[in-house]
């Protein structure tokens, strides 16, 4: 037997006939190009000449120029032969054999389907090669992450671009799904406080929700409280922690639930009642579908691999990721803004693909300090979309976006920067005014709704914050009249 027989592989699949039929139809009816231009790209063709013809024709049509065998001839290689034919004769034959443009969309679907098959074959060969001769700078985990990225790209090309469905087909299914979801409590994940649900609506599967807050503003506390609450309601929840360890996150969640100060729990200086409370939480936690996953260095690929594995094994409903700034950005050669947007787009695609809700925590930048220093207005402390990591442009990838706003620590941070000043008797200095506002905002927070696909943004309900247990609570029962409008 030939020692190299196992290296002989069948030829890659192609769609030569579909490509010829599509190109012939486009050369007859240039307007038909727009039926496939949204999803069919030159790289999807299997024949290099077909790639060139499609790319050239698309450029000419986009510029409003007529495309036919005569006008396109000058842009094609004159010396190339296809069997016994010149390129011009080959193009003319495609036109004469075309049977009209009514099937152009179907030809495009056939071409992209075969492209996906070729890509899968090529990928499987790469896996085989990498697995046999793995470079020193690679690991099995890195190979798996890279392969997962490429599989996702192939799936998105094949499904999202080519898988268009008519409005009349989608609408009955959408209405039926909405009717079914309205009576199915498992289709929507509630927030842990009614004020939050009122402003944001329940979380929905396939959605990416952005939660923005300042450093030390309570993002992690809020997230752990939400995961614990959702798990108690039967929703399988995971907290992906990149910033704090699994043990730190678990102790903080236990502190909130048991009403034991985190410092006392961390040092384990508990009294008898607190010992009983933490033992009760340990017992209850055993059966809770609440998972805490720690990461070291973390990329979008790492998150995707872990999320896919957990959805398959645990059947997750909700993932909260702490936080976006700790995730290594994709596409190192691109500009920073595009890399950040690619991160959010990737998380959105992941939520949609896995049919789960994903909450991504977003670090707020320090632009508010410059606004305060230039204007002196207390409205400068209030979060705006431009304060987000990645800027306001990330809005397009988020289904819901809100800020968790606690002005008290911000006032405390700025107090030492306030210069001394003289005022008239009976008047307050700016520093005294800020101290007064800090006291008024103590133990209070606001949910500022920046974007909500279903409903109107702009609502800002107030909630309470208990610093002793690092937990948020409702103010519906004990909110004094003076609290209303503390953000103005």
UniProtKB/TrEMBL annotation:
It holds the Pfam family DnaB_C. Its EC number is 5.6.2.3. It catalyses: ATP + H2O = ADP + phosphate + H(+). One of its GO terms (biological process) is DNA replication, synthesis of primer. Gene3D superfamilies: DNAb Helicase, Chain A (1.10.860.10), P-loop containing nucleotide triphosphate hydrolases (3.40.50.300). It comes from the Bacteria. PROSITE patterns: SF4_HELICASE (PS51199). Residues 182-479 form the SF4 helicase domain. This is DNA 5'-3' helicase.
């Amino acid at each position: 037997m030939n020692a190299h027989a196992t290296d002989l592989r069948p030829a890659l699949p192609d769609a030569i006939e579909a490509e010829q039929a599509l190109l012939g139809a486009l050369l007859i009816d240039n307007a038909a190009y727009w039926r496939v231009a949204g999803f069919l790209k030159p790289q999807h063709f299997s024949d290099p000449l077909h790639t060139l013809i499609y790319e050239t024709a698309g450029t000419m049509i986009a510029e409003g120029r007529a495309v036919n065998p005569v006008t396109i001839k000058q842009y094609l290689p004159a010396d190339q032969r296809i069997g016994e034919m010149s390129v011009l004769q080959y193009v003319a034959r495609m036109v004469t054999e075309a049977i009209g443009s009514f099937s152009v969309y179907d030809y495009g679907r056939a071409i992209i389907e075969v492209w996906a098959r070729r890509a899968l074959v090529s990928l499987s060969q790469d896996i085989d090669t990498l697995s046999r001769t793995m470079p020193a700078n690679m690991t099995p985990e890195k190979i798996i992450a890279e392969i997962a990225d490429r599989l996702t790209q192939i799936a998105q090309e094949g499904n999202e671009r080519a898988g268009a469905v008519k409005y009349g087909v989608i609408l009955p299914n959408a209405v039926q799904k909405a009717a079914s979801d309205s009576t199915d409590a498992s289709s929507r994940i509630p927030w842990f406080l009614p004020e939050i649900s009122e402003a944001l609506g329940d979380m929905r599967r396939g959605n990416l929700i952005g939660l923005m807050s300042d450093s030390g503003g309570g993002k992690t506390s809020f997230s752990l409280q939400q995961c614990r609450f959702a798990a108690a309601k039967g929703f399988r929840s995971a907290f992906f922690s990149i910033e704090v360890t699994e043990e730190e996150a678990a102790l903080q969640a236990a502190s909130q639930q048991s009403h034991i100060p985190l410092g006392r729990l961390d040092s384990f200086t508990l009294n008898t009642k607190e010992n009983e409370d933490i033992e009760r939480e340990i017992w209850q936690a055993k059966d809770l579908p609440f998972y805490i996953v720690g990461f070291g260095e973390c990329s979008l690929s790492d998150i995707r691999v872990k999320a896919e594995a957990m959805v398959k094994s645990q059947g997750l409903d909700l993932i909260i990721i702490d936080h976006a700034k700790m995730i290594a950005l994709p596409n190192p050669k691109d500009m920073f803004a595009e890399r950040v947007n690619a991160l959010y787009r990737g998380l959105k695609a992941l939520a949609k693909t896995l049919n789960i809700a994903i909450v991504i925590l977003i670090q707020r930048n320090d632009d508010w300090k410059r606004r305060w220093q230039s204007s002196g207005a207390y409205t400068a402390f209030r979060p705006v979309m431009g304060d987000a990591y990645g800027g306001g442009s990330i809005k397009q990838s988020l289904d819901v976006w809100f800020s968790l706003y606690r002005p008290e620590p911000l006032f405390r941070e700025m107090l030492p920067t306030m210069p001394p000043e003289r005022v008239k008797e009976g008047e307050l200095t700016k520093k005294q005014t800020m101290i007064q506002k800090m006291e008024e905002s103590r133990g209070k927070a606001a949910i500022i709704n920046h974007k909500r696909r279903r409903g109107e943004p702009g609502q800002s309900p107030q909630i309470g914050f208990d610093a002793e247990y690092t937990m948020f609570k409702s103010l519906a029962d004990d909110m004094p009249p003076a609290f209303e409008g503390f953000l103005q």
